[in-house]
Amino acid sequence: xxxxxxxxxxxxxxxxxxxxxxxxxxxxxxxxxxxxxxxxxxxxxxxxxxxxxxxxxxxxxxxxxxxxxxxxxxxxxxxxxxxxxxxxxxxxxxxxxxxxxxxxxxxxxxxxxxxxxxxxxxxxxxxxxxxxxxxxxxxxxxxxxxxxxxxxxxxxxxxxxxxxxxxxxxxxxxxxxxxxxxxxxxxxxxxxxxxxxxxxxxxxxxxxxxxxxxxxxxxxxxxxxxxxxxxxxxxxxxxxxxxxxxxxxxxxxxxxxxxxxxxxxxxxxxx
Length: 271
Prior knowledge:
single chain; alpha/beta; 3-stranded antiparallel β-sheet; 11 strands; 16% strand; globular
């Protein structure tokens, strides 16, 4: 039987892979939503940014409701509906053939609902622990999430594959567990395992310790990959989530920059 590391490498079509974020501007219900521009503006920017990523040959696309600050533990119903509408529209209009996924920040259940409605094959979220952030307390959704997946007719080993955040990058982990302890604990949950872990590259020795502890699970860079450090971090990680590095001036909420994206991909292909 293939390990999850082998399974995801096959899924993304490479032993080392890029998960490129298409950050959506504010969805309906969020403070950043543009009432005048409406859903047309959200879809137009998503189409533009996604096409640039596709044209540069990334391995996969992950749609993210990044601008829905402050984040909810439960994304409102209008946000879920809009999220699914944007993803379906972009996927169909651009005829996306590579794997695509979703990240509904702090609400894995909403992410699963969007993935189910759009055919997304992977997702990122928090599936264990209790996180405290400056937006509030975000409890573990794992019990509800895995039951919802089962009720949607999907086995634990079926897509959407789950990339679970570990460590304190999204807030403070109130369980007190470090990344190694979190990964080891979740790896033993036979019926509620993530398929991969997402971790910050701040301490590569800690990253190596996680890989040694759960060798069958892939580990992807959760944040901070850029033109200067990609060669170093990818010696340790299996994949990387790409975000602000590819945006205009490297700013998180700016649009995708074609030149920065092309330059990054040239570095990637030279590795």
